[in-house]
Input
Amino acid sequence: MSCINRLVCLTKVGEKMTESQNAVNPGVFDLKLKLDKGQVFSKQNGYNFPVTYRQTVRPREENSDRRRLDMNTMAPEMMALKDRLKATWMSGDYGYFATFMKAGAMEFLDELNLEPGMRMLDVGCGAGQIAIPAALRGAQVTGIDLASNLLDQARTQARFAEVKINFEQGDAETLPCDDESFDLVVSLIGAMFAPRPERVASELVRVCRTGGRIVMANWTPQGFVGELFRTVAKFVPPPEIMPSPVKWGEEETVRQRLHAGLVELNCSLRRFPFFYPFPPRDVVGLYRTHYGPINRAFASLDKKGQESLRQALEQLWIDHNVAEDGTTQYPSEYLLVTAVKG
Ligand SMILES: C[S@@+](CC[C@H](N)C(=O)[O-])C[C@H]1O[C@@H](n2cnc3c(N)ncnc32)[C@H](O)[C@@H]1O
Output
């Protein structure tokens, strides 16, 4: 078994991981020793992998083979787009931005009917908005996200909350997870942003166990966020080689994408409550500073373009604001997708 340029947690044969290693590094790959290129560890050289690692390492190698194959066959334009998308989500501070979305996230979590011990995968977990409360409710949670800075925030928050969660960097299109390894696979407005939705669909199904559930919340084209994206697109055209993320919010499209291997698929429209305790003008400021896609959109424009985009966004929030007390409130529609793997 070889581990090349990976950070792994090792214990000597016969030694257990210490409490603090466990507490600080609840995940599988979280620390500690950098292996040199080509270095091989096995029982013979006096090291033992902790059980969690041992359970996971073989599938990981298979998964990394899959990722490598994917990288080798990916068109250069797609590779460039993926780099750009990752940089986009790492811009701003989604962890802070998400604090204004807590109420809707908790409503989504309530829909999941979590049971203690349930193995849950959160795809596009961001800074742990639902991963952490799910773990507090007793689920065994793995969180995957493209953005390493958000995962760092998630790990810190999980430590504060005193829950163990395996947060790992990865792509929804090539999930670094074993087949059939989760009872529940969820994505709260996360997986919808990957550029190759058919791959996402097959990965969500692959990693879910037979009889397990897949639950997604996806912004709809006709809802507020769909309109927000269209407004931004007038100033900064979206990438041509990527279908619009909000197509995941159309039931018909979801049924085309998520057809194989399921025995049940239900879709229903829901409303996500947005509440900002400040006026629309400042909401634009919040998005511009903290929400990666809008942060990058502003950064790509000259001063005049920035001011035009700012005005258009402010008008959008003014038009949709249902509050009259100086705050900004609007519900944004999403499609709740619930599937059962057969
Ligand atoms: C709108 S945020 C939602 C984050 C989190 N689910 C929440 O509700 O706070 C979208 C997240 O999806 C992640 N993401 C986007 N594309 C991804 C991909 N291809 N694979 C994994 N994560 C992705 C982003 O990095 C970001 O954290």
Summary: Residues 85, 89, 94, 98, 105, 124-126, 129, 144-147, 150, 171-173, 188-190, 193-194 surround S-adenosylmethionine (CB under 6 Å). Residues 7-62 form one domain. The two ends are 34 Å apart (CA to CA). The CA atoms of residues 113 and 184 lie 10 Å apart.
